[in-house]
Every structure is written in C-alpha cells, then in structure tokens.
Specification:
Number of strands: 9
Distance between the termini: 73 Å
Strand content: 15-25%
C-alpha cells in the first residue's frame, strides 16, 4: 500500500507587509550599491526630496491612481457661479448634482472647457446648473452654468483624483501607496539616486523603473466593462 506524499504548506497567513518611508529609501540606496552604514545625512535629505519628486511623477503619469479617488461635495448658493476646490485636487473624474429632498434625486453633469465657457454669452443666467468648468490653477475652482437659482437646494457631488500625500520618513511613517506600487516607487527612487550617486547604473535602474511602473499601472484599473457613448453636446478637445 503506497502513501501519497502530501506536504503541509506553511504560510504566514498575514497581509501586513507595509514598509516605512525610510525602508523604501534604504532599499533604493541598496539598489545603487550604497549600503545603510555608508549613507550620509546629506544623502538622506536628498533621498527624501527625490522620493517626493517620484510621487509627483506618480501624480502626473497616465492613469487615475485609484487609491486617491474620493467623493467630495459642495453646497451651491443661489446666485453664486464659482466655488473653491481643495488645492490637492488633480482632476474631476465625474460629477452629478443632487436636488430635491424627498427623495433626493441626482442628475449627471457634463464638464466644459475654458473655451466653451468663454463662448457662453449669458454666463450670469440663473437656472438649474447642468455644466461645470474646472479651472486647474494653483487654487482650483469650479464654475457652473447655469448659475444656481433659488429652486434648490442644490449639492454638487464630484469624484476627484487628488495628489498623493507627501512622503516623510520620521517616526516610521508609511507612504500613501497601495501594495501594488511598492516595487514601482523603490525602482523609481533608485533610478533618481543613481543619477546623482551612481551614473554608471542609471540606465539599468531606468529599465527597472519602467518595467515596475508598467506592471503596477496596468494593475491599477477597475475591472469593469467599458462602454463608449459619444457625448456630442459636451464634446471638446482636451
């Protein structure tokens, strides 16, 4: 009688791998052959700067950074067309206006461009807001057409993509990044540090960075069917 070999597989049964900002910095230095005991204070300060610049790159690369998307709202005031938006807002992805109270009803709103808003001859017309222009300045604003009338209350809800929180390494602070981007941020930082301290490794670290970014960004998507319907009434060049 034979006995089948059935080894017991032992795993950690945990999902707690969450390196601190300092851990990412040390790992990036390792990738350019600078060991922890060799790192000087000025190098660490430069690494923190480069780590934040790497996050700036994450903010501006194609894609939405799903973990930074949240729902915001603005109560609209009769007669007021323009409202401030939090400065960390990168873009407005989709929006709707909520009106009535019993029950509350939502209506999708279409964005318009600066040129389209400029072309409206009756910007001050009061009514039910149906379009908005998001002005991406340092202090961003959103402007509505029609200007909200007194038929509300109206509340503007919008899903935004905001910037990633600043990187810091004090007190074991973590980066605001999901698990799938851990290797990408390490590879990006290693490439940046190689530019400064190990130019001979820059090309290799850049290849690593590009590969890691491609893998992470491809996974950073919503797994839902895509339906494309032209919104001819709100079409404009971007």
């Amino acid at each position: 009688m034979s006995t089948l070999f059935n080894p017991v597989v032992q795993t950690s049964n945990s999902f707690n791998f969450s390196p601190s900002g300092g851990d990412f910095v040390l790992s990036a230095f390792d990738r350019i052959q600078i060991r922890p005991t060799e790192i000087e204070q000025a190098q660490m300060q430069r690494a923190i700067m480069e780590l934040n610049l790497a996050l700036v790159r994450f903010n501006t690369m194609p894609g939405q950074n799903l973990w930074t998307i949240d729902l915001q709202s603005i109560p609209l005031i009769a007669g007021s067309a323009t409202y401030s938006v939090p400065a960390e807002t990168r873009m407005i992805l989709s929006a709707y206006i909520r009106y009535a109270t019993n029950p509350p009803l939502d209506r999708y709103m279409y964005p318009i461009s600066r040129d389209e808003y400029a072309a409206i001859s009756t910007k001050g017309t009061l009514g039910f807001p149906s379009q908005y222009w998001f002005d991406r300045t340092i202090a961003p604003t959103v402007t509505f057409y029609l200007v909200p009338d007194s038929g509300g209350p109206y509340n503007f809800f919008y899903y935004r993509a905001r910037q990633v929180q600043d990187a810091a390494i004090g007190n074991g602070q973590n980066l605001e990044l999901p698990y799938r981007f851990y290797d990408a941020i390490t590879a990006d930082l290693a490439h940046r540090l190689a530019r400064i301290y190990q130019p001979s490794l820059e090309a290799q670290r850049k290849a690593d960075r590009d590969e890691a970014w491609q893998i992470a960004s491809t996974d950073d998507t919503e797994w839902t069917p895509l339906y494309i319907t032209p919104g001819l009434s709100g079409y404009y060049r971007r």
